[in-house]
């Protein structure tokens, strides 16, 4: 058993010079598998090429990130879908998809339309979804709620106990990352009370590095820091947290 970093963008330019070292450091830290969410058309090729170099270690997702949903989103999405069709067996999820109203509120309507379309795609393909939400919990819940049968994770979960309950009570998962280690992150008053059988871990590298690396480039090797944080909040041994979160991730992504 080893850790799974369920959300990492190590195909981005931040890792262009040393991605081999980054992956070796992850493996040294017992992070055996890494799941790579797509952002948009511009990231697909780099993501696919990296995954091809590391079969059984790196696994790609297909999707259009809400911040990349612009007026041409339908063309962008059909391009992503054509790459998906050509490499179907490789993909483990549709992601990342969702609604982000922090950067741009004017695109809400097309973000909702893109989310609907990508959830329907996930259902057709029988794949889980990886959801990005920022300042748009209610809007996102309203869409996801229309698809009772969809499985997925709210990645980088930093919400309230009530929001965590909404997610876990309908069988979906909470992706917990570096924010759980921030003093001002507010997660120490939430995480002790969530359904542990619905928690998976992620870095969201290169973003949101955990303390003591906060503000620097994040990387998958920092997953045990997040595991240790959960172990202290839950009064568990870190190896139990590894077994639990890896088993949870394998269930969600139907992937051993
Ligand atoms: Zn991400």
List the topology elements:
Blueprint: E1 3-5, H1 19-28, E2 31-36, H2 41-53, E3 58-60, H3 73-86, E4 94-100, H4 108-125, E5 129-134, H5 137-144, E6 152-154, H6 161-169, E7 173-176, E8 199-201, H7 223-234, H8 238-253
Parallel strand pairs: 1-2, 2-3, 4-5, 5-6, 6-7, 7-8
The chain binds zinc ion (ZN).
Instruction: Tell me the span between the first and last alpha carbons.
Output: 10 Å
CATH superfamily: Metal-dependent hydrolases
Bound molecules: zinc ion
SS strand fraction: 5-15%
Helix and strand element order? EHEHEHEHEHEHEEHH
Q: Which fold name corresponds to the CATH topology?
A: TIM Barrel
Helix coverage percent: 25-40%
Strand order of the largest sheet: 4-5-6-7-8
Cα-atom radius of gyration: 17 Å
What does the overall shape look like?
globular
Count of domain modules: 1
Q: What is the top-level CATH class?
A: Alpha Beta
Number of strands: 8
Could you say what the CATH architecture is?
Answer: Alpha-Beta Barrel
Uncertain segments of ≥5 residues (pLDDT<50)?
Answer: none
Structure report:
The structure is a single chain. With 256 residues, the protein is of the alpha/beta class. It has a single domain, classed as Metal-dependent hydrolases (TIM Barrel, Alpha-Beta Barrel). It contains 8 helices and 8 strands, in the order βαβαβαβαβαβαββαα. The strands form 2 sheets. It has a 5-stranded parallel sheet. Strand 1, helix 1 and strand 2 form a beta-alpha-beta unit. The protein is globular, with a radius of gyration of 17 Å. The model has no long low-confidence stretch (mean pLDDT 97).
């Amino acid at each position: 058993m080893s850790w799974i970093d369920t959300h990492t963008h190590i195909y981005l330019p931040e890792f262009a010079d040393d991605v081999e070292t980054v992956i070796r450091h992850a493996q040294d830290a017992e992070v055996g598998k890494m799941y790579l969410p797509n952002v948009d058309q511009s990231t697909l090729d780099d993501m696919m090429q990296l995954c091809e170099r590391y079969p059984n270690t790196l696994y790609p997702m297909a999707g259009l990130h809400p911040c990349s949903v612009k007026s041409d989103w339908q063309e962008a999405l059909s391009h992503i879908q054509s790459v998906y069709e050509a490499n179907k067996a490789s993909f483990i999820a549709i992601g990342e998809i969702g609604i982000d109203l922090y950067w741009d509120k004017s695109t809400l309507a097309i973000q909702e339309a893109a989310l609907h379309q990508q959830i329907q795609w996930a259902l057709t393909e029988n794949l889980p979804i990886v959801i990005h939400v920022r300042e748009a919990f209610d809007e996102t819940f309203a869409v996801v709620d229309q698809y009772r049968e969809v499985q997925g994770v709210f990645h980088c979960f930093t919400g309230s106990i009530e929001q965590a309950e909404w997610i876990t009570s309908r069988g979906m998962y909470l992706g917990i990352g570096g924010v759980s280690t921030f003093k001002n992150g507010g997660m120490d008053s939430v995480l002790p009370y969530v359904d542990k059988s619905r928690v998976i871990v992620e870095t969201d590298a290169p973003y949101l590095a955990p303390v003591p690396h906060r503000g620097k480039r994040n990387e998958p090797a920092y997953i045990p820091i997040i595991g240790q944080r959960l172990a202290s909040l839950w009064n568990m041994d870190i190896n139990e947290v590894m077994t639990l979160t890896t088993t949870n991730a394998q269930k969600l992504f139907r992937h051993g």
